[in-house]
Amino acid sequence: MDPAAPDFDVGAGVLMNVFQTEPGDPFSLGYTTVNFNLTGFAGETIRFRAALASNQGLFPFAIDDVTCRSITSAQIPTLGEWGMIATTGILGLVGFIVIRRKVTA
Fold it and tell me: In Å, what is the CA distance from 67 to each residue of 17, 20, 60, 87?
């Protein structure tokens, strides 16, 4: 969904339907895994909406275990445990020096 679209929009605010039943589909479905590609929305903010509309009476509906994964080979660089410890020590030392200079000035 476009984040600016109203919550119940069914028009232009719907950017992609990733699962939708059609007339003639069975009245009961087991657990269904749905995979979809959001590459076309890279760099944008989008909203995930799960909605149910039924004119056939009771229609139990549930969503479980939603995940969003990047399948690119690029990894976000992170610091390991020792890198975090060293960075904390360096920033602490810099802070101490700055405070000491302000106190003596």
Answer: 17, 19, 22, 32
Domain count, the chain: 2
Cβ atoms of residues 16 and 5 within 8 Å: no
> 62 and 29, same structural domain?
yes
Q: What does the DSSP 8-state code read for residue 104?
A: H
Residue 105 belongs to domain spanning: 75-105
> 41, 100, 101: which is closest to 68 by C-alpha?
41
pTM here is 0.55
**Series of mean pLDDT values for 10-residue runs along the chain (105 residues):** 92 91 82 86 88 75 80 68 86 88 76
